Fold this sequence. Notes:
By secondary structure, the protein is an all-alpha fold.
Amino acid sequence: MTYIYRFIxxxxxxxxxxxxxxxxxxxxRGDINLRGWTYLWMFPIYGMALLMEPxxxxxxxxxxxxxGGVYTLIIFTIEYSSGWFLENIIGTCxxxxxxxxxxxxxxxxxxxxxxxxxxxxxxxxLHDTLTRIHYA
Length: 136
């Protein structure tokens, strides 16, 4: 499977995860419509999970707690860099975490670390599945 197909699959998977995440968040705030959303900008950002494949291959045998921590740091780096880039290139960042006391410059929220930890391990499983499909 080529890199472009995997990039697309990661991008679509990230969109779906984000819509479920924001939908559950809206439910917790009392919205029984389970309104979920994402931004078009997020597709290429989630597609960058492709860059985590070599890391996954290198740390595959490490304990899950360590792998998840590594993925969390990588995701925070990508999220911060993407937010900074968008703000400086187009003048705005689609997400704004500045109202959270756990925010760093409005680009990342440290309290989202558990969610990114789990997302990293989920993308790891997706990588394994894509690899099996490619070699099947």
